[in-house]
Amino acid sequence: MHAHIVFAHPEARSFNGALADIAEETLAAQGITVTRSDLYGELFDTVEGPAHYGERADEAYFSALAEQRHAGNARTRPADVQREIDRLTAADLVILQFPLWWHAQPAILKGWFDRVFVYGELYTGRRRYDEGHFRGKRALLSVTTGGPAATFSPYGRGGPIERLLWPIHYSLHYMGFDVLPPFVAHGIQGGGIAYEQRDVFEQHLDGLKRGWAERLNTLDSARPIPFTGWQDWDDHGVLRADHPLRWA
Length: 248
Hints:
Layout: E1 2-7, H1 15-29, E2 33-38, H2 64-74, H3 79-90, E3 93-99, H4 107-116, E4 138-144, H5 161-174, E5 178-179, E6 183-185, H6 198-216
Parallel strand pairs: 1-2, 1-3, 3-4, 4-5, 4-6
Helix pairs in contact: 1-6
């Protein structure tokens, strides 16, 4: 078994950094090898564009999909992107560790999706979803929020956490991953706990760390999030009229 962590936080000493460290230690104790992409530390360039492609498929007009496919075929893909693809290819489990900023992942992680999940080699019009390139591999989000858990409930002011994470989960499913339910560490900025209750807050953080380690020790029993696949859709890409989910 091999796991790869994609770490998307600008401070290695942050709580996100602590969770990434716990993941490495816990998985290593199971005999799993672990590698890490430190997107900020490695200065990953998040902006897809012409500057990344010296030998262009079309010098007159930039199409990201066309240039990604051409660079793959010509073996002129940017080195940082190829490095990330190689890391993902070697992994059986991919963990994305990041804070929830503005109801989504940090921009550096979104840019990582834009540049690393390249058209041609990693997905095509047909090779995606349950027939995607990474089928058989698992992916797991480990996410931190500033607000407490109640605010991310279905009627909470932060918005339902399942809906906020859905685009990321679905993108991973799009690439073929079996997506495990996320680990969400709520309230790491204090969660309304007053400064004079600092000891209570520290206990809260310690509990989250223990919960993350426990989760990592029970991954084999985790069932992936269910998604629809090619067999569920009609020729227009819509859920079949006779599909059981139509009656759920």
